[in-house]
Amino acid sequence: MRNIIGVEMDGDGIETAVLGFPRIGPDRELKTALESFWRGDATAAELEGVATALRRDQRDAAVAAGVDVLPSNDFSLYDHVLDAALLVDAVPERFAEDFEPGSLELMFAMARGGGEVAPLEMTKWFDTNYHYLVPEIGPRTGFAPRLAKPLAELADAPGSRPVLLGPVSFLSLAKGAAPGVRPLERLEPLLDAYQGVLEGLARAGATEVQIDEPCLAGDVDVDLLALIERSWDRLAGARSDLELALVTYFGGLGDALERVLRLPAAEFHLDLVRAPEQLGPALAAVGDEARLSLGVIDGRNVWRSDLDAIVRQVEPALARLGAGRVRLAPSCSLLHVPYSLERESRLDPELRSWLAFATEKLDELARLRAALAADGSEREALLAPSRRALEGRRRSARVTDPQTAARLAELPAPDRCDRAPASERARIQASRCELPALPTTTIGSLPQTAAIRDARRRLLTGELDRAGYERFLEAEIDAAILRQEQLGLDVLVHGEPERNDMVQYFAERLRGFAATEAGWVQSYGSRCVRPPILFGDVSRPEPISVRWWRYAQGLTERPVKAILTGPTTMMQWSFLRDDLPAEAIGAQLALAIGDEALDLERIGAAMIQIDEAAFREGLPLRRSERAGYLRRAVDNFRQTTARLGPATQVHLHMCYSEFGELAEEIARMDADVLSIEASRSGMDLLEPFAGYPNRIGPGVYDIHSPRIPSVREIEELLERAEGTIPRERLWVNPDCGLKTRRWEEVLPALENLVVAAHRRREAEPGGPAATRGRTSAG
C-alpha cells in the first residue's frame, strides 16, 4: 500500500489509528444542513445524506494516508454524549412521553428544547471548548440498547472500529435528575445495555470496539477505579470474538496506571502529548499480549510535530513490545482541530509552514510510521520537512517583541493590583449611574443576522468599501439601541455587529495572532468557531472597540456597557503557541486588554464588561494541578482591571460552568458585577455564591435553546435567586450573549425578562412571584 507521502508500506509493521474525526464539514456543511432541517427547508433524508457524505470524505482522506484503524460512530449530528444517552435509552421522562424512541425529533428536543419542554443542561467537555449535553439519570431511568446509529455507520464503513463513550465516563458526566439519585450507582443496569450494544456490533461484523474513558485523566479515587474494573470485567466477557480498546486522553493515568493496564483490554491508548512521562511506566506495566496505542500527534493544537522527538520517544516502545503491539495515533479525537490547511490561502506562507490541521496530522502519522520503519538517508529525508519547519519557527523574528517584554517588566506584581475597596466603588458607581432594583441588561452580543453576515462577506470580497461597511454598522447599532430602549432595558449594549467572534475579533487586531479563513471547529450542535492562532508576543497597536462604544453611547442617555474579551478566554479559545509558558502568555494578553479598558474609561465608559467565559474550562482535570492555573487566571483578570478607577464599574461574565468550588477565586477577581449561567440548573449554580460580596446577575433564560421563556418562568427563577442573594445585589440578564439567536426569539424573550423584573420589584423581597399584570405573557 502506498500512502499520501508516496512511501510503500508492506502492512506488516506499525499500525496507525485515528480516534475520531472533525464532523462539522470543511465548509460547515453540517451546520448548513442542520439549520435547514430545523427551519423545515430540508428533509431528514437530506440531512442524513450530508452526514453520510462527510463521513465518507473523512474516511477516504484517512485511507489515502494509509491509516489502518478507522473509527465509526464518532460522528454526531449534534453531540456524541447525547448520542451515548440515546444509545442506551437514557431519555428523561419529559421527552419520552412525546417523541418516538430513536427519532431525530427526540434527539433535537433533548438538545434544543421545544415548547415548554426544557432541553438537557449543557456544559464543557472536560477542559475543551466543546460543549456536551449533560445526561439526566432519574429514579426510573431504564437502560436498553438502541443500535440503529452505530450499526448504520458500521455498515457504511465495513472494517471500521466503532467508538463508544465508556459507561463510567458516561455516568460521571451525567447528573441526577431527582434528589438522592447518584448516576454512578446505576452502573450495573447500564452495563447490561452496553453488553447488548457490544453483542449487536459483533453480530454486525465489528472485530474491534473503541471504548473512551476520559474520566481516567482526572482525579481517580479507589471507588471510581473499582467501577472501571467492574465495567471491564463485564464488557470484556460480553464477546470473546471482539477486541476492546480502552482509550484515555486529555491527560495521563497517574497513580491508576498500573491497575488500568491490568484490565482485560486488547489495547490501551495513552495521551503522550499531555502526559509523555507515562510511557516508561506503561511499558513496564503492560501485559504480554495487549497493544499500546501511543497518542503522539497533538489532537488539540495546530503546530507541526517534532517528528525527530517522537521517533526517539517511540523507539523504546518498539524495542520492548515489537511493531505488532504498537499503534501510532493522535492524542485524542481530531474533533478539536480544523480540517485542512488547503483552504488557508491568505495565511502568511511562513506561518502556514509551521502548522498542521487534521489532514496534515494524517500526513504526519504516515511520515512517522515510515521514518520508524526506515533508517539512514531514507529516514533523514522523511524527517527533513519537520526539521525545517521547526527551525524556521525558532529563528523567525516575528515571534518575539522586545517592546512587549519591556512593558511587562514595568508593571506591578499581581498581588499589588488591588483597586479601591468594593464598598467604596459601589457608592461611587451608584451615584454615577442611578439604576433601579434588579437592573436589567444583556450580556453583550445581539443577533448576528443574515444582513450582518452578508455585509461582512461583501467587505471581504470588495463589493462594499470600508466607509459603506461602517455606515452599515452604525445603522445596525442605531437599531439595536432603539430596540433595547423600547424594551425598557436599564443598561444597554451596542450589540457587537462588527464582531465575527468574541475572541477572533480581538485577535485579528492584536499583534502576535493570526486568523484563519476556514479553520472551523465545532463548539456545539451547529455552532462553530474559528480559533485564532497565537504565534508570537502580543501587543495592541491601536484601540479596538472604542469607536463603536463611543458611537453607541452617543445615541442614548442610558448607560452602554463596553464589552471586552478577557485574557484567559483569549487563551483558552485560541490555538496557543507551545514555546512560551502560559503565565507569560496570560500576562501579555492582560496588558493588551487592559490598554483597551483604560482607553474606554478615558472616553467615558461607566461600565466595562470583561468576558471570561472560559475561566473554568482551562481548569486542570486533576485537583493537585489546579492551584497554579487558578492563581494565573485570577492574576490575569486583576492585571487587566488594575489601572481602572473606582467610578468604572467592572462586570465579569462567565457562562456554562459549575462554579461552586471556584467561588473563592471568583470573589478574589473582585468584579463589581458578576454574571453567570444559571437558568438550566434552575438557579442551583447560584448557591455557592450566597456569600459573594459584590453584585451578581444569574442568567434567567437559556440562550442556547430557541424556546422563549415565559414571564412566570423568569419570575420564579428570580424568586429563587432572591432566596440566595439579597435583591439589592441582584441583576437580571440572559445566560450569555444573543449572537446565535434570531430577533424573533430575542425580542419576546427580553420583553418577558423586563416584565418579570418589574413584577419582582413590586413583590416583597424574597416573597412569592407576582401574578398581577400581563398574565398573557406568562
Task: Write structural notes for this entry.
Helix 12 (307-321) crosses helix 14 (358-373) and helix 14 packs across helix 15. The strands form six sheets. Strands 1-12-11-10-9-8-6-2 form an eight-stranded parallel sheet. A six-stranded parallel sheet has the order 13-18-19-20-21-22. The chain starts with 14 loop residues before the first strand and ends in a 16-residue tail after the last helix. The chain is built from 27 helices and 22 strands. The model is unreliable at 7-11 and 770-778 (pLDDT under 50). It is α/β, with parallel strands linked by helices.
Envelope shape: globular
Strand order across the largest sheet: 1-12-11-10-9-8-6-2
Total helices: the number is: 27
Unreliable spans: 7-11, 770-778
Distance between the termini: 66 Å
Tally of DSSP β-strands: 22
Task: Summarize the main sheet.
Answer: 8 strands, parallel
SS-derived structural category: alpha/beta
Mean pLDDT: 93
Radius of gyration of CA atoms, rounded to a whole number:
26 Å
Helix share, percent: 40-55%
Strand content: 5-15%
